[in-house]
């Protein structure tokens, strides 16, 4: 960035999908509203069912509940404002609002990377040390692992957000995105940001690569353990316990890598918006669907919870009928 004349910026304007015709924006509004509601409902159900059903009080579902909290947070930070820009053309966001949105995006994103690594370690212990699994992953240990997963997002988000928003901004305040992401906001700064960009690149690589390497290490050992199982049925059962997590990890990391690690020549603002939708909007909706459709324990627990709820409702109605 180059030093130049600048004025105090009190608010930003999110360009979102303003280049599209009104009819397309209306269609996008309905689509994203549906995804938003499904995401909130699906992840809320995962949280409620894993809390209510004693059969799902294992470490795996404890970490899944944490993941659902993160996905709900992602959606609450991004989607409501995006829906406002689509239906009401309310593109303005305050300086503080933009900084707050960016902070929580960093926080939830970093936390999810480390939580997915923790969930991979949980699957590794469950498959490679099944007899010691309840002892190793006791309530105290799983609480510590969850805390370690959530914590890195705090310093990363604090440093990157406060540093970025301490720079002077030029008069142009149009953010070419549907949320306050770091790269489009960085383009509005009229000061030398070379040091910050180096920090941001190194920080992003570390945040993505460290959990990714931990996940690869866990699944390498899992694969080695599965290959040693003599029966095909045993191999299938072992693989099915981690297939949902593996699919979720693949969706998250592929969309994240394509968004932030593509060559700039292939990285137009419009294509980046589409890719950003994958890990910020679509993936949080798919996660509860993947875990419920591919997991018989969750499906059975949903059925039991539904029947219990219907039983309570019937008893309640009969009480008032009498």
UniProtKB/TrEMBL annotation:
Every G-protein coupled receptors family 1 profile domain range: 42-291
MF-aspect GO terms: G protein-coupled receptor activity; olfactory receptor activity
Keyword Cell membrane attributed: yes
Family matches, as InterPro entries: GPCR_Rhodpsn, GPCR_Rhodpsn_7TM, Olfact_rcpt
One Pfam family here: 7tm_4
Family statement: Belongs to the G-protein coupled receptor 1 family.
Protein's name according to its UniProt entry: Olfactory receptor
Source species of the chain: Bison bison bison
